[in-house]
Amino acid sequence: MVSTSPDEGEEKEGPVIRDKRRIDPETGEVRTPPSGARAGEKEEPAATAAPAADASGGDGEAAALKEQLAERLADLQRLKAEYDNYRKRVERDRVAVREQALGQVLQELLPVLDDIGRARDHDELTGGFKSVGEALEAVTGKLGLEKYGEKGEAFDPTVHEALMHSYSADVTETSVADVLQPGYRIGERILRAARVAVAEPDPNAGGAAAAEDGAAGEAAESADEPDGSGKSDE
Length: 234
Description:
Blueprint: H1 49-121, H2 127-142, E1 145-148, E2 160-168, E3 175-181, E4 183-186, E5 189-192, E6 194-201, H3 205-224
Parallel strand pairs: 2-6
Antiparallel strand pairs: 1-4, 3-6, 4-5
């Protein structure tokens, strides 16, 4: 008994080879895909799809990088501003501490400078004492110590301390009549106010001057009038 297979008598198909090359190797031209493609085959994406996706992704990444760069730049500018303010504050504090320490030292020397000044006024600044006194005044001057207060200058309550008060017809404004103790300062800082005697314009000076002028005018008029005897000078 001979058994036959169900495929017996049917023609067997061989391997199927498909040439999917886009360029024809013989002619070198671009092949056009056949219109009737099989339903099971997946169509390849268009060549421009991937570059478009890459371009959109590249734009987003560039925008993110620019945003990060702007944030880092703002942080750097803020840090630089804080450092500049800190450096200015440290320098200002350093100058203030130096001036305060220098002012304390010079303030302790003011009585010595007063003694030197009184000795000079009484012609007692001679010999070695004169050299020492002048050297001390020169050194304090280099350190910024300034002596002020002169007779006849305008009175300023911010730098002068009035110990005596009087009226005078020789002044037209409140002025320093005499300096009892000179003042000292460093720049705009007052170490000791000048102690002075103050003179103000005399409020009665104008009335007295007017009375004197009136008396002089009356005397002149009486001299010009005749004596009433009827005689005239020959």
